[in-house]
Design goal:
Helices cover 40% and strands 14% of the residues. It is of the alpha+beta class and 376 residues long. The chain folds into two domains: 218 residues, Hypothetical protein, domain 2 (Endonuclease III, domain 1, Orthogonal Bundle), CATH 1.10.340; 131 residues, Nucleoside Triphosphate Pyrophosphohydrolase. The structure holds a DNA duplex (11 and 11 nucleotides).
DNA sequence: AATACGGGGAC
DNA sequence: GTCCCAGTATT
């Protein structure tokens, strides 16, 4: 892999890229501000998440938490509620923690230097380079999925882009190309090129401002780059979930902060074991997780959902509370809520899919009265 | 060096 | 269905 460009070539490459960017960049909400806090929020949201998905979340988040202090002083549950549906919830917990730390230890000021950013929770090499270059004009090259794809094609680089971490070749290539006079625009131009021209499939090479430097284009092998390691198939699990009704309210539980869907609320349930019916699993799991004895009624939904490392089939049942007092094993909190109140809690997307079915299914099968009472 | 961590857009 | 997205933390 030949990858050295002459100083003249580098100058020309940077100019072509920057001219193209200034003419063709998309107007995006976080490109209309110079507020480092706002740019930070956008970078956190954009991790592994497409621009189109982020835009409405970005607007809502900044409307609700317009500055660092507003975020730092908000309860985590409120922050999670605004993040609900965006995924990778550790991102927002880290953002919240970082905001609190900066308010407490740094007078609410944001750092300018890469090394300072890097020390904040949730800020890795990419975000540290992105913010310090875009908001503070520091000469740090970013390497994200777009940049790796562009570099992979430019230099016919055989390093797999999805290996962790990708050895460092992409970092040194990006660093070589970086325009140290305009690092922020240069970085955004590289990413924009990857997003809109040097796309994963069917790249628009005729529109590429630097195709003259692209070895993949010259050799007509754009389709074979970037090189990517094959991924293994996602395992599948079946889960039974119960909506436990009692006197018109339903039981929800909160997941612990660490791990999958940390801090979110959900309906109790768990894995269906071999030789067990979904309804049996539902009753057993509710007894194990929250200590209640319930009557499992009708199945109100079957939900297929894919997470990043496995797939689930959720079988959701309406349940009638019979007896027992809530004793949690697993969840860290619980609440009996009226159906109208469900909107106030952050739920995983898979749970949100059946929220509208809860009230009507209960009334259809058990009548519109108060539901079962209890001896608690 | 691998794995955990969401959800959805685009095909 | 599949691929992959402005990655980071943990093990």
């Amino acid at each position: 892999m030949k990858r050295e460009l002459t100083p003249d070539q580098l100058r020309d490459f940077r100019k072509r890229l920057l001219d193209w960017y200034r003419r063709h960049r998309r107007i995006l909400p976080w490109r209309r501000t110079r507020d480092p806090y706002a740019i930070w929020v956008s970078e956190v949201m954009l991790q592994q998440t497409q621009v189109k998905t982020v835009i409405p979340y970005y607007r809502r988040f900044l409307g609700r938490f317009p500055d660092l202090a507003a975020l730092a002083h908000a309860p985590l549950q409120e922050v999670l509620k605004v993040w609900e549906g965006l995924g990778y919830y550790t991102r927002v917990r880290n953002l919240h923690r970082a905001a609190q730390r900066l308010v407490r230890e740094n007078g609410g000021a944001l750092p300018a230097a890469y090394e300072q950013w890097k020390q904040l929770p949730g800020v890795g090499e990419y975000i540290a380079a992105a913010i310090s270059s875009i908001a503070f004009q520091q000469p740090c090259a970013v390497v994200d999925g777009n940049v790796k794809r562009v570099l992979s094609r430019l230099f016919l680089c055989d390093e797999p882009v999805n290996r962790s971490p990708s050895s460092g070749v992409f970092g040194s290539l990006a660093d070589q190309l970086l325009d140290r006079d305009k690092p922020g625009d240069h970085n955004q131009a590289m990413m924009e090129l990857g997003a809109t021209v040097c796309r994963p499939r069917r790249p628009l090479c005729p529109r590429c401002p630097v195709r003259g430097y692209c070895r993949a284009f010259r050799e007509g092998v754009q389709g074979r780059y970037p090189v990517r390691l094959a991924r293994t198939a996602l395992p599948e699990v079946s889960v039974a979930v119960g909506v436990v009704h009692r006197e018109g309210r339903v039981l929800i539980t909160q997941r612990r902060e660490k791990g999958l869907l940390g801090g979110l609320w959900e309906f109790p349930g768990g894995k269906i074991q071999p030789n067990e019916s979904p309804a049996q699993a539902c009753r057993r799991e509710i007894h194990e997780e929250v200590g209640l004895v319930v009557e499992v009624g009708t199945r109100i939904a079957r939900i297929k959902h894919a997470y990043s490392h496995f797939k689930v089939m959720l079988q959701v049942f309406s349940c009638r509370y019979l007896r027992g007092k809530v004793r949690l094993k697993g969840p860290v909190n619980f609440q009996w809520v009226w159906p109208e109140e469900l909107e106030n809690y952050p739920f995983p997307a898979a749970n949100r899919k059946f929220l509208p079915l809860i009230q009507q299914s209960w009334e259809r099968f058990f009548g519109p009265d108060d539901g079962p009472g209890g001896d608690e």
